Amino acid sequence: MARRNRGSRGKIILVAGGAGFVGSHLCSALLGAGNRVICLDSYLTGSPANLSSLQDNPYFTVIEQDVCDEIEIDEPLDCVYNLACPASPPSYQADPIHTMMTSVTGTGNLLRLAERHRAVFLQASTSEIYGDPLEHPQQEDYWGHVNCTGPRACYDEGKRAAEALCFDSLRAGNVDVRVARIFNTYGPYMQPNDGRIVSNFIVQALRNEPLTIYGNGEQTRSFCYVSDLVEGLIRLMNRQPNPGGPVNLGNPGEFTVIELAELVLSKIATASTIVHAPLPPDDPKRRRPDIARARTLLDWQPKVPLQDGLSHTIAWFQSALAKQRTVRRP
Ligand code: NAD
Ligand code: UDP
């Protein structure tokens, strides 16, 4: 199809879930690269505050809407990123049926939108596709080990169904779809009450509260700094030709939960200790991405070591929590 003439401005890009943690960084990067960006978000777990530095940009628009409702956009879209879905276990388990519908109905709505606009589509999928994995590290051809009846299923199985919708749309020739399987990502603009490990540990340490380790803390995760992830998402969206299958995006450095707690405590002057709390059901024991496909197809690998990424994130939370205290003061 002939590209539409946009004058000197770049592409017109929809970011569903653009007011969330990753989405706000993505909107910022896309605007910085000279594109027009439309953010569509219901503010379920995102916040207008995440977009405050973008709100005066004339090339940025926000639409407050649930992706489960039919979506109409008047402008001709070149690209659609689908990041709309709560991502932390407490958030996605708060209304599990809506989480499932967000992935299934919401992704279906956005795929139809992309088809009408002949826009390239990128789905923010997840390492949860692999469940509590029996293969390590996880490669894209591993089919996973997911409990379809447990409390994580609304998220894991929703994202698996969304991938099925994506690859059926691709095979049918309806939409040029790309799927990123994102591993644990952290950084500024996570909500302090989000519930994920990095934000929990940093906020607890800054408040001199005990760090809550679930279970014995020997379970592992691999933590990717958000700027690295955003770079990978944009490369995947722009990659020609279509890579034809999912691509893992994550940092292969693997840490136990105890190691992360100790690292956070070593970086913050705090009176915090460590306490143990029950391990949530179906909590994956080990997780580390094999990123050979991303290296080959996208010439991408993470650049920010955990030590540095944590320092940036701690500094951001220090300032965000100080602002919250100022606002609350009568
Ligand atoms: P987040 O919760 O901060 O952001 C999700 C955004 O989607 C929020 O702004 C929320 O309000 C919006 N949203 C949720 N449901 C919606 C709905 N029905 N309609 C419209 N908007 C809706 O999470 P995040 O960490 O920024 O994750 C972004 C995406 O990346 C998610 O799809 C998530 O599944 C995926 N992902 C993230 C990680 C990670 O570690 N951050 C890992 C794997 C996958
Ligand atoms: N976790 C923890 N304490 C917390 C939050 C999480 O020990 O305060 C553990 C959790 O049980 C899991 C790991 O940290 O083993 C990562 O949890 P998170 O919710 O960040 O992401 P996910 O489980 O989806 O990878």
Automatic annotation (TrEMBL):
Gene3D superfamilies: NAD(P)-binding Rossmann-like Domain. InterPro entries: Epimerase_deHydtase, NAD(P)-bd_dom_sf, UXS-like. Residues 13-250 form the NAD-dependent epimerase/dehydratase domain. CDD domains: UGD_SDR_e. The keyword Ribonucleoprotein does not apply. Keywords: Decarboxylase, Lyase, NAD. It holds the Pfam family Epimerase. Its cofactor is NAD(+). PANTHER family: UDP-GLUCURONIC ACID DECARBOXYLASE 1, UDP-GLUCURONIC ACID DECARBOXYLASE-RELATED. This is SDR family oxidoreductase. It comes from Sinorhizobium psoraleae.
